[in-house]
Amino acid sequence: MTTTSEQNRNAQYPEGLRFGRIPITAVSPVVEDGRFPAKAIPGSDVSVGATVFREGHDQLGVSAVLYDPRGKEVQRVRLTPVGAGLDRWAGTLTPRAKGLHTFTIEGWSDLFGTWEHDATIKIAAGVDVELMLAEGAALFTRAAAERSAKDAALFRRTADALSDTTQGVEARLAAGLSPQIHEAIARRPIRDLVTASTPYPLHVERELAGRAAWYEFFPRSEGATYDPETAEWTSGTFRDATRRLDAVAAMNFDVVYLPPIHPIGRAHRKGPNNTLTAGPADPGSPWAIGSPEGGHDAIHPDLGTFEDFDAFVARARELDLEIALDLALQASPDHPWVQSHPEWFTTRVDGSIAYAENPPKKYQDIYPINFDNDPKGLSKEVLRIVLMWIEHGVKIFRVDNPHTKPVQFWEWLIAKVNRKHPDVIFLAEAFTRPAMMHALGRAGFQQSYSYFTWRNTKEELEEYFTEISHVSPAYFRPNFFVNTPDILTEYLQYGGPAGFKIRAVLASMASPLWGVYSGYELFEHVARPGAEEYIDNEKFQFRPRDYAAAEAEGRSLAPFITRLNAIRRSHPALGDLENLSIHRSTDPATLVFVKHKRTAEGKDTIVVVVNVDPHSTRESTVSLDLAQLELDAADLDENGTFLVDDLITGQTFAWGEHNYVRLDAHVEPAHILSIRRQR
Length: 679
Known about the structure:
The protein is α+β, with helices and mostly antiparallel strands. It folds into three domains: 24-204, Immunoglobulin-like; 215-573, TIM Barrel, CATH 3.20.20.80; 579-675, Golgi alpha-mannosidase II (Immunoglobulin-like), CATH 2.60.40.1180. The protein is 29% helix and 24% strand. Helix 11 (407-420) packs parallel to helix 12 and helix 15 packs parallel to helix 17 (558-570). The relative contact order is 0.08. Alpha-maltose 1-phosphate binds at residues 270, 330, 365, 401, 539-540. Homodimer. Keywords: Carbohydrate metabolism, Glycosyltransferase, Transferase.
């Protein structure tokens, strides 16, 4: 809060000048000079910083101030210098409520800090002793006029003590530097020349926008049956899929994501393994949307009715699950749009409509949308569809290939939807170039698929984890899906069960957002020859699974995944993106990272050590930067070691700065360690 005298002394920006009385530059997190808001969720720690400096040698103070959507100040933190000689200041803001907040950086002359610095040096040297004590007395006398009664009385007593020549110099100076004085100054510094930066936006969205565990499955495969006599399949329904929700909730997931649930076209329908010829009973790809039964606003008749879907959503809600629906803006040749709005597609010179291609892949059963011929009409129709599904309880949309549509359209659509429904979340399935992925985040996508899927080595992971936590978190929230119906990496194809464990640990511990496509818990790993895709891909055929039998026989990763999600829910440090730090190990396949967070209940610190080689046992010395762990004296024993509890195995170890680690990929390839506080 700025006092009246501070306002009078406040150095406002004179017209036409860019620097204030105290120069403030390079503020963060700021996205394109504030054109787009930085992202946050309630309770997340947002790293703020700025380069702030001034002329001369007087001491400087820097604060960050957070304002709620109404413009009310809700938090003020003092920043600390980082990097000697760089004039860089940093700290943390923690918004508590949703909405479009703003924050500013304030730079100011630290009057007490300047007096303390000068008085300590000069009085010790016997220079200007009485003058320094008199200046201190004058400082506290002036400050007392704008303090609460308690602090005002303290400051007046201090001014009197500094002026009391009957006392020794050391006693007088000690009164001005007492713990009580430092405590009062820490609560409310004595400031002059207060200069505020431009306000910058900070959009605080609901928790699932930035913290969630996702589980993907195909409703049609749940309860699907095969008749060997007729060689035909019967599709599962939403009623069958509803029974799967209990198991998903039991694994501590937050979001159930469904591929498209709409009618599927017959024309150019794909057969098993993406073959060009489909049999009469082949279900086709759910992404080939549209048939005479309807398009994006309809439900495939094999799955059931809207009443069945509503019951599915309601049961999910009872289990504290949310449903995410695929939003795929494309159409089969049979989609009603092809007849009613051919201008929404690309027509070739021979009169045919262009189908989708991603060379060398071809999708003859899908027509891409063209936004250039009738952008207003097409945008209006997409908005209608999204709002319709919101009315049926869908608040999360996983958007298929958003990078193949104009970024401008997404900015318009998301803003339009979020103005009316601020809790609606959009996930970008955009495995593409960084510039596009980051632009989609700026445009409003709350989260995105990421490059994590293809980052496997220690070096690759260290680099990527640093990027997503310290370079791009203001606008890009990565969802670390370990697999998708389209993507089965070589690491999983050949890594065995250990590979599946390793990737699950990395995804769930490094990012507050992670996801699993069904079958992962069953170690499904056989690829179509020559491809990074599953053989007998569920995109083109039914794939019922006996999850219960696999778990009963010990062939399931479900208990391990359940434990990982439970750890995430129990440890607030794992719910933030920006608090990840890389630590050292001597082994080229042993990755070490730490997530640390201060909460009202205390400090929460998780140390993750992972053997990223799924084929062997690795030994290493792990070296921790103890300063980042913020250990208190009560956390340490007489040898300077502290206790860590392994949240996977239940073991307890005494650790210090340097620690021997041996991880057998075929037993437990990772430690997830929680530092035991205040022993």
